[in-house]
């Protein structure tokens, strides 16, 4: 099986796979990642990169860490419950010197096209669920 690269991944997502709905595909200025904007998920941006010849990395940035009250307790809760989020993991990434929560996953760069599309669709659904969970945490509906 052929190994995916940014060019072939861009073509795949630009082909508008039904599992993702209406999407826009862009290559940001840095050029080492593609951004797949899922319009039916509130214009959620999912970033896709290829790491060498082995892995495809997929991530969705959620919100700045500083916007989450009682951050330590929140992170403890996320670590205790992360296994309930299939094919995705929570993480912290730095964007322009600021820490942000993200949801990410990876799969083989040799995966078939339908598996790649499915991973992006699942990560997007998980990101929407995570955003709702964060909103509940911020409103106090979820206790520490």
Keyphrases for this structure?
144 residues; alpha+beta; Yope Regulator, Chain: A; 6 strands; 33% helix; elongated
Task: Give the overall shape, derived from the CA principal axes.
Answer: elongated
Q: What is the domain total for the residues?
A: 1
The average pLDDT is 90
Poorly predicted sequence stretches spanning 5 or more consecutive residues? none
If you consult CATH, what is the topology?
A: Yope Regulator, Chain: A
**Percent of residues in beta strands:** 25-35%
Short description:
With 144 residues, the protein is an alpha+beta fold. The chain has one domain: Yope Regulator, Chain: A (2-Layer Sandwich), CATH 3.30.1460.10.
Structure description:
Helix content is 33%, strand content 31%. The chain has a six-stranded antiparallel β-sheet, with helices on one face. It has helices at 6-14, 71-81, 113-139; strands at 23-26, 34-38, 44-51, 55-64, 89-95, 98-108. The chain has a single domain, classed as Yope Regulator, Chain: A, CATH 3.30.1460. With 144 residues, the protein is of the alpha+beta class. The longest helix is centred in the last third of the chain and has 27 residues, at 113-139.
Topology, element by element:
Elements: H1 6-14, E1 23-26, E2 34-38, E3 44-51, E4 55-64, H2 71-81, E5 89-95, E6 98-108, H3 113-139
Antiparallel strand pairs: 1-2, 2-3, 3-4, 4-6, 5-6
């Amino acid at each position: 099986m052929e190994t995916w690269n940014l060019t072939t991944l861009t073509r795949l997502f630009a082909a508008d796979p039904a599992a993702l709905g209406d999407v826009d595909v862009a290559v940001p200025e840095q050029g080492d990642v593609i951004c797949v904007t899922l319009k039916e998920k509130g214009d959620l941006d999912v970033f896709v990169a290829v790491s060498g010849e082995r892995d495809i990395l997929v991530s969705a940035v959620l919100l700045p860490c500083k916007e989450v009250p009682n951050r330590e307790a929140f992170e403890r809760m996320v670590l205790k419950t992360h296994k309930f989020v299939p094919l995705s993991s929570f993480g912290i990434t730095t964007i322009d010197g600021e820490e942000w929560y993200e949801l990410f996953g990876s799969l083989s760069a040799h995966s078939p096209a339908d598996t790649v599309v499915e991973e992006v669709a699942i990560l997007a659904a998980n990101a929407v669920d995570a955003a709702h969970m964060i909103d509940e945490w911020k409103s106090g509906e979820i206790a520490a």
